[in-house]
Amino acid sequence: MGSQDGEGYREDGEGPQREVTLSPFFISKYAITNAQFARFVEETGYQTTAEQIGWSHVFHLLLTAEQKRNTTQVPSETPWWYPTNSAAWKTPEGPQSNWAGREHHPVVHVSWFDAVAYCNWAACGLPTEAQWEYSARAGSSQMYPWGPELKYNNKHMCNVWQGRFPGQNTAEDGYIGTAPVDAFSPNAFGLSNTIGNVWEWCADFFSASYHTTSSNNDPLYLQDTGIRSVRGGSFLCHHSYCNRYRLGARNGNPPNTTCSNLGFRIAHKE
Questions:
Q1: Are 259 and 230 in contact (CB under 8 A)?
Q2: pLDDT at residue 55 above 80?
Q3: At a CB cut-off of 8 Å and minimum separation 6, what does 152 contact?
Q4: What pLDDT is recorded for position 10?
Q5: What span, in angstroms and rounded, lies between the C-alpha atoms of 40 and 94?
Q6: Distances (CA, A) of 173 to 153, 195, 196, 235
Q7: Which member of 17, 44, 100, 103 lies 3.0 to 4.6 Å from 2 by CB, making a disulfide possible if both were Cys?
């Protein structure tokens, strides 16, 4: 686990690299889709965090000019995130939007609590960081599942930012927002889009000391830090701003966070 390739973020605690041992487990090939989440909501009547509070963060290029004009209190430190009224999983760009045509895209605007609620309904759980990284690596010790470079034979292998962040996305990889969960070639274990597309919630609390304080056997960091781990990067990651789409990269968010690039996949022990 971990990274010591010189590309990492010291504050994220990406290293030191170490070997860990995991018990057998299952993990979903894909992130949970809008269609899957809709079945969960239909059966349970569940209301997500974003629906309860009435808004969520939407990336600015996904909004119309009118929506931007009507949005106030855009965070100065991340001015590309617009707090958008009524944005939620089923209205991902606000009240005039829906997920029609995106049935097989990953569900977004889901908090850690929403992901856990889905897992409880589906009799599974979120992957631990270790399970996630083992699955994403699929035997690779390099920066990406396919090798040391972001492209493979000059071919796009994942959905990440193309162009100059945050104002210009050339969409050279085919997508400005999310891509279908089975877009791009799967890794050697058959998992798709572990790199880019959407950040994926994990079971652990996030700590920069993870690699030095968690167990080497089935590690799971449960000391409450107020932040939950996310892995994999998203369609907004770019080397000039956030290259956390590398296999060893890690990050965290408060568990009530909801936004346009945050989803999850599921796992359970054998």
A1: no
A2: yes
A3: 146
A4: 85
A5: 21
A6: 14, 13, 11, 10
A7: 17
